[in-house]
Each structure stands twice: as C-alpha cells, then as structure tokens.
Amino acid sequence: MREHFSLTFLRNQLASRRALTQLSALGFASGILTGLVIMLFRMAFEGPQVLFLPGANTENYEQLPHFLHFLLPFGGAILIGLFFYFLSRAERRVGVAHVIERLDSHQGELPFKSLLVQFLAGALSIISGHSAGREGAAVHLGAAVSSQLGQKLALPNNAIRSLIGCGTAAAISASFNTPIAGIIFAMEVILKEYTLNSVTPIILASVAGVIVTQFFYGADPAFVVPSFTIGSLEEVPFLILTGIIMGLLASLLIYISKISAERSQPIPLLLRFSLAGLLTGVAAVLVPQIMGIGYDTVNDAFQGNLALQTLCVVAGVKLLVTGLCVGLGLPSGFIGPSLVIGALAGGAIGFVGDYLAPNSDINVGLYAMLGMGAMMGATLQAPLAALTALMELTANTHITMPGMLVIIISNLVVREGFKLKPIFRTLLTTQGVELKSHPLNQYLDRSSVSSVMDSDIPHSASVVSIEEAKILIASQHHWSLIWLDDKPKVLLSNSDLAVFVEKLPESKGEINIQLLDIPAQRLDLGEVNLRATLRHALEVMNSKQVEALYIHPSNLENSVIVEGIITRSAIEEVYRYNRQQVPLD
Fold this sequence. Notes:
The chain is an alpha/beta fold. The protein folds into 3 domains: 2-221, Clc chloride channel, CATH 1.10.3080.10; 233-430, Clc chloride channel (Orthogonal Bundle), CATH 1.10.3080; 449-581, CBS-domain (Roll). 63% of the residues lie in helices and 7% in strands. A hairpin with a 2-residue loop joins strand 3 (479-484) and strand 4 (487-493).
C-alpha cells in the first residue's frame, strides 16, 4: 500500500511541469541505465571484432583479405535483411529518426521490442564492416531504455518525454565522453527546446552516462586530438571557404540519402538490403578504410598521417556509400559516418590550404577537426552541439572562433542555400511522416492531463428528480457528468440546469427530469488515459470533434472508470494564464 501511494504521489507530481526534483532523480537513474546499455552494446560488437580482426584491433578492417572486404558487408546486409523480413514494418523502424517520430506522434512511448531490434541490427551492421556508427544506435537505445523506465513506472507522458531527452544526452556523452555535447544534442536535435525543467535532469543524466563510461573505459576521449591553434587571422578567408565546402558536402550527403530513400521505396526489403551490401562490399574491396566505425582513420587525419589522395578518395567513397545505404534503409547509423567524412574532407582542405599558402603555417589536423564539426553540425542542423563537441574533444579554447565560423557557414549553406531539412527529418519526410513541431505543442507536451483535470465533478444518471437536480446545482461546479447505459455520455451545464429548474411549475407530484432533453449546453465526450499530455488530449478532441474528455486509468483500455474530466476551454485557459503570469523557463 505504501509503495502504491508513493508511486501515485510521484505520478501526480510529475504531471506538472514544475516537478523538478523528482524529474532530476529520474534523469540521473535514466543516465545510469543508458550508460550500462551503451556499454553492453559496445561489448556486443567489440567482442566479435577482437576475435576476428587482425591484431585484435576493433578498427583494423583494412588488413583483412580482399574477399572478406566484400563478403562481410554483403553477408551482413543479407543477415540483417532476413532478420527484418520477419518483423512488421513498424517494428523495423530504428535510429534517431524513429526516436524523433515517436516523441512527436506517440508521446515518447518507445516499445521494448524496438530496443532489441536496434541493439541487434546496430551490432550486426558494425561487426559486418558497414559504413556505420555507434552514436545513432546509442541514441535510440538510450531513449528507448529511458522511455521504458517511464512506462514501467506508469509515469505521465510529459515525464517520459523528458526522460527521452535524458537518455539521449547520456547516450551521446557515453559515446564520446563529452557530457556538455550530450546535453546540447538532446535539446537541439531531439527535444527542440531549452527550459530549466528540461535541462536540469538532462545534465544529471549526461553526467551519469559519463560516469558509467569512465568506469568501464577510462576518461580518454573518443579521439586522440593534438593541440591545435589557428596560425593567424590571414586564415579567416580560408576558414570561410572551408565552411562553404563542408556545407556543399553535407548537402550532397543529405540529397543522396533523400533520393535513395525515395527511389528505393517500391523495392522489396531483401533486395534493398542486398543492394546495400553489394554496394558496400564492392566499395570496400577498392577502399577498405570505409569499413566499420572508422575512428582510427579520423585519428590519422588529426595527426596528419594520411596523404591528400587518401583523404579525398576515402571521404568521397564513404559519402556515396553512406548516403545510398542510409537511403536503402540499412540500420547503419548516420552520425558516426558523417563525422568520419567531415574529418577526412577537412583534412584534405587543410592540405590544399597548406600547399596554396605554404607560409601561413596551416595545421592539417585543425582543419580535419573543423571539418568533422562542420559536417556534423550541417547534416543535423545542430550547430551548438557540433561546436560544443569540438571544444570538449580538443579541450582547447583556441578552436572556438574558427569552429564557430566554419560550423555556422556550413549550416547556412545547407539550410539557406539549398533549403534542406536536417537529415533525420528529411528521412522521415520520405517515409511519409510529417512532424507537428510547434511552440504550442511543445508547451502542452510539458504537462499531463491529470494536472488540469477536474476530479471532483458531480456524476448523475440521465434521468433525475427535482431534488437530485438541486443537489447537482448546489455542487457549485460548472459541469455535471451525465451517464447513460453505464457509460459517460455528456457534460451538462449546471447553470442551464438551474435555469430550467427555476422555471418548472409548482407541483405536488414527483417530476423526473430527462437531462439529455432539457434546453442546456452539453458537451459530447471522448476519452483519454491518465498519462496523456495536454497536447494529446487536444489532438483527441480535434480528431473526435468533441469539446471535452473523460480521463480513465492508464492501464485500462476502453475503461468506464472516470478519474476526472478535461475540457478544451480548460486547456486553453491554462495556456493563456501561464503565458501571461508565468514566463516560460
């Protein structure tokens, strides 16, 4: 009984957007769980890699025989295709785009099965040497395990939405050992908002994710980054050119992914995955550096150990293969490959700059780092997350100014020059999913119906005596809930009922009043569960064309147990009041 009371109290507190303490504690728990899941995910693909890759090096695909350069990605794609073949279309959806979709259209409820599918498909994709990354899969895993935490506790959906942001932040910080970048990524790419109530639990989750990572892997960052500095202000024009070139490459990557996704929709699943495997296998025979996560190649670019031809060829082939395979639907992730492409292309730009201006002391590694940040920022259209990642990875404030310049220019090229959406939203559009992002929706998503509902509304049968009608009037409530055939039927205006009763003639006999027939304002009812957000309640009202909903327990479908009622005017009044009296955080 005490446990039930505690959970009920917690749920009621979290229904409001002001439950900061409780949400912060859950955020920290979410970060720990996410960190543990990410570690399991890394072990799932790093263990097999150590066993079959030369030198027990998880990145050493280059030293494999050429026939394995082809067979690994081709066989892996067919294996993943067979796995997906036995899943429904909805169950095949994985990755960051899927998280954004579920957050926008399903109140953040990510199924446990999608977590398992992402775990297995992501690990298989990396093991088989596809142009893949662990970051996109990590975001899905972190968001899913955090969503599951909220669902198991039957928390209101506004709290689950916040927990998804926590899981995302913990996943990114655990992947790169960059806690601040994880926070900014979650808020800039996933939640699309910056408020005190959302950022506080996300910070704690990000810290928790890093704690778990450092416990298992130590405090070393994902990349080996030497000390960088810009030679002189004479490099500024070249930095501007770098931003433009990276914006063009990011636009090309988004465009290839978009066209590939649109053109491949009619192709059967197994054939699409086989094409992706064939394409990757042929490319890997020619350029084996495209295989796997590719962070060893990135580190070589930072150190200036790669020739200009190698940088250009690997970047170009990886861009083409990644764009086509992502469009074909292979669950290989997008964030990791974009980082590799950006680092290699940036390094090539640095080489060219050093050749054209030999006296300018251009640092090739610096441009590789800037290219990586610009590519990430431009494809995701998340400039703050990219800049923060640069600063955390380098631990060098000298990169701030050039990083800001290059990242913003590359974003402008993609967004304003080519009018392209972020890659994940582009992919959702090709799948027929249109997001409903709007400031009003975001605001209404922060509160649950239980924070606004009227739980003390009087109930009545549809036929009452005069005395029973007077009891309803005396309740001082604006509405009464009228039942018919053991189901909630309508809301009746008590003021209109009072007017009707006053006009009744004096009678010694008993008079029964049919409440569904008297002249009065009545609101037809829909239904919604107790965990729903105000936004979802408003969407249900619009779809059912009703002005009010009765609220039933979240664990019961089609229930006639009524926890309370909520009207459209009540939602609108809450929004108006908070906008006028309590500024948004």
